């Protein structure tokens, strides 16, 4: 059984496929990083947005890391975690427009759509997302298990594409390797590990585990 399914059933989020777009809740949009257990940092990480942690409370490495605000066990942190879980469930229920299972993401140029990977997905090199002049279109990636980038990979946005309209819904853990330049919102069922000097615009959300940071720059999604 997919690791996603028991989680959705427990939350009452498993329902018939639908074709709407995705959005983050108002609390999630304020958080650059949200985790369930711990947030661990080494080095001079800068979070443009809040550090949000619930139900866990252990966060280390701040300072030297900085964040716009620290929300540990607060209503904002609880809300961010719950809203991210709802978005994760909505993502899993979407009809996919293209099955990319087994296809390397590096070197691809993709337009708007919902892209499915039955198991793991990997990015080595550059992935280009092309909005074709419409800043409202979304790029949604349904990853059945793990997602990982190779060192110095990039997610490039062209022709009006926005990071806040890029969603990566990951069925287990996500690993963003060193010096990756990432754009998009990652919601992982388990944890998220971010390598040295990797950057992201969109935010990281770990539903059931930790986020580990190492001299990163991460910017919250905000309103799209």
* DSSP helical segment count: 2
Spatial shape = globular
Task: Calculate the terminal CA-CA distance, rounded to whole Å.
Answer: 34 Å
Low-confidence residue ranges:
5-19
How many E-type strands? 22
Q: Main sheet, how many strands, which sense, barrel?
A: 12 strands, parallel
Element order: H for helix, E for strand: HEEEEEHEEEEEEEEEEEEEEEEE
| Rg (C-alpha, Å) | 16 Å
Provide the structure class. Answer: mainly beta
Helix content: 10-25%
Strand content: 35-45%
Query: What does the average pLDDT come to?
Result: 92
Q: How would you portray this structure in words?
A:
The protein is 12% helix and 41% strand. The chain is mainly beta and 224 residues long. Strands 1, 3, 5, 6, 8, 11, 14, 16, 17, 19, 20 and 22 form a 12-stranded parallel beta sheet that branches. A 7-stranded parallel beta sheet has the order 4-2-21-18-15-12-9, with no helix packed on it. Strands 7-10-13 form a 3-stranded parallel beta sheet, with no helix packed on it.
Helix/strand layout:
Elements: H1 4-11, E1 31-35, E2 38-42, E3 46-53, E4 58-60, E5 66-72, H2 75-93, E6 98-99, E7 109-110, E8 113-117, E9 121-123, E10 126-130, E11 139-143, E12 147-149, E13 154-158, E14 166-170, E15 174-176, E16 181-183, E17 185-188, E18 192-194, E19 199-202, E20 204-206, E21 211-214, E22 217-220
Parallel strand pairs: 1-3, 1-20, 2-4, 2-21, 3-5, 3-22, 6-8, 7-10, 8-11, 9-12, 10-13, 11-14, 12-15, 14-17, 15-18, 16-19, 17-20, 18-21, 19-22
């Amino acid at each position: 059984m997919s690791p996603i399914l028991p989680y959705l059933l427990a939350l009452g989020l498993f329902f018939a496929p639908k074709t709407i777009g995705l959005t983050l809740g108002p609390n999630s949009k304020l958080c650059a990083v949200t985790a369930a257990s711990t947030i661990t940092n080494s080095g001079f990480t800068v979070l443009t947005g809040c550090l949000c942690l619930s139900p866990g409370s252990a966060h280390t490495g701040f300072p030297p890391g900085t964040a716009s605000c620290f929300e540990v066990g607060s209503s904002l942190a609880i809300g961010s975690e719950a809203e991210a879980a709802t978005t994760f469930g909505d993502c899993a229920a979407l009809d996919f427009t293209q099955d990319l299972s087994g296809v390397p993401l590096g070197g691809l140029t993709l337009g708007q759509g919902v892209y499915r990977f039955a198991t793991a997905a990997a990015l080595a090199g550059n992935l280009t997302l092309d909005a074709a002049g419409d800043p409202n279109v979304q790029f949604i990636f349904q990853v059945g298990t793990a997602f990982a980038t190779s060192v110095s990979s990039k997610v490039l946005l062209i022709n009006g594409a926005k990071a806040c309209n890029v969603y990566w819904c990951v069925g287990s853990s996500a690993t963003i390797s060193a010096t990756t330049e990432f754009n998009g919102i990652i919601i992982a069922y388990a944890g998220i590990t971010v390598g040295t000097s990797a950057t992201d615009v969109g935010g990281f959300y770990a539903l059931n585990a930790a986020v580990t940071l190492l001299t990163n720059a991460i910017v919250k999604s905000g309103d799209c």
